[in-house]
Amino acid sequence: MLQNFIAPDLTPALPEIFLLSMACAILLLSAFTHRTRLIAALIGPLTQLTLVGCAVLTYLTMDTQTVLTFSNMFVDDLLGDFLKLILMVAVTTVLVYSRDYLAVRNLEKPEFYLLVLFATLGMMVMISASHLITVYLGLELLSLSLYALVAIDRDSSRATEAAMKYFILGALASGLLLYGMSMIYGATGTLEIGGIAQAIDNHAANSGLMIFGLVFLVAGIGFKLGAVPFHMWIPDVYQGAPTPMTLLIGSAPKLAAFAMTLRLLVYGLFDLAGHWQAMFMIMAVLSIALGNLAAIAQTNLKRMLGYSTISHMGFLLLALMSGVVGDDKHFALNAYSVAMYYVVAYVMMSLGSFGMILLLSRAGHEAENLDDFKGLNKRSPWFAAMMMIFMLSMAGIPFFVGFFAKFSVLLAAVDAGYLSLVIFAVIFSLIGAFYYLRVIKLMYFDPPIDTAPIEARLDMRVLLSANGIGVALFGLFPNMLMALCTATLIHSM
Amino acid sequence: MELKTILFYLFSAILLFAALRVITARNPVHAVLYLVFTFFNTAALWLLLGAEFLAIALIMVYVGAVMVLFLFVVMMLDINIDRLRQGFWSYLPFGATIGLLMVAEMALVLSSEYFSTASFPDHPISASVSNTKELGRLIFTDYVYPFELASVILLVAIIAAVMLTLRHRTDTKHLDPSKQIAVKASDRLRIVQMSVEKPVTDCAPKEVLT
Which of B114, B119, B153 sits opposite A140 (nearest CB)? Predict the structure, then answer.
């Protein structure tokens, strides 16, 4: 019976296999943490090492060929490898930023590192998925780990409430996504993303049912990205979760959600672009408007950054909807590489700004209110400058990475003929600039309320500074990253 | 009428009767037992269709595990059945409307062209192939990647559940067997060197004597 079975080629999935084996080894090791302090102290560095090893493996196996394995369920292409490398850097940064915060709050448990590793595995599976089942399983692996991470501080009622909200709304979104997938399976008769595209191409799919399924898919994607009207969870979860978890949720999963969008909609349902672009247009307009307006009223920095995420996701959708104009598909490459650039830039800025909250927090003090940033310039001019870089970049002020991200998205939208939409987005960016600039005003022109010295380890200071300088440098030389994004997509589309 | 058809009608009739008794039985324990009976008959119907894996899974998972647990829960709870039945007639119109709506929707879906079985190619499996074996073969060959991922998801669920619920209490009086076995005489008995007590000579109060 098994004679005609060919064992799948495991080499494309080497980084995932390495990550899973290491996670299992760390799981076994963490059973002995109560015996000696040495093992407990080993878990953190070992997790970091695993991520570095994973990045090295991804880099070494990177080539321009697209390889499918595991009966066409797993795809290894340049897009996947590139996003995975950024993902590793982002998760490693999250771990460095959050170590002190967790240690003083007695939350630096082995489970934290394990769940972060499993969440990373889920994101890698999502990035490399070429089958609806693997997209869904990767998403569930990521979401389940994140729900548990939000609830890690189980005695805090705010964190538990946030975890509960996240869990229920996340389960609902997964259900919507799954329902959409089942409709698409019903219409095309296949779960393979390549097969779906082929079935639509051959006009073998029932178009009414396809669009019905597409609506649910877009709703699921909208929830994972956090675009209006599927944004309800973002402010509450961002504010309620312990700051390291907010940092994690706000950064790396956006890469995976972007990859999922690209795989499902661009690789699978590209021929229906007219339909999903129209849905994205509504979501983009609402996200940009609501995100920027609601952020003005916030006094909690985490909640404010949550609303700013919503508006950034609106810009991402603006890029994704500029790919196809009528039947003209030659804008697609530019639009999608701009979207990728935007996501990478957003992850960098998000890491930095939540990293600043972690830097100013210490035992018994959460620096999450705007007042905590008052007079930061007097306490630490260097980190005040870093925060200024992140805020200016998020506002989209020239010569930081956020400016070029926004600028190229707007250019792509103008190319696609959405001029009125671009004017709308610019006006709302201007409104949004207010709340970013308010942080800078508080840091430089207000007397400090909190005068305690900043206590942070050297590695965090260095990495946070590198993060800030990176945001500035990628803004001064944007073409390098842009060329990288374009080259990646040329080889994988 | 061949034997298979007769069996189908027999099992279906018992199934419908048992399902009806689940909601009409006065005693909740009887209702659960009728539900077990319903599952048995469903499994028998699946066997008639040649889906022996589903039939066995239904009996093992639902009858063997879920329903037994359910039975325990029902036995533990003090359910006042008469109070539950209050207002049956006032809720009936609402419930009946919802029920009819569901039947109509189901009929609509099943009769539409998208969901008819004709729109999917059927994969005839010869009677000699056991579908348990076929399922096992598929899970460990073509679908090994999602199968492994599903197991990782379950692992994450275990880790998360343990992390969120396990609390090391210090006030429990639990025993650690390995400590009990490894105990030495010196842990239990302490031999103390003490100087011999001096004879009581000059402790008697002299005043009394004098």
Answer: B153
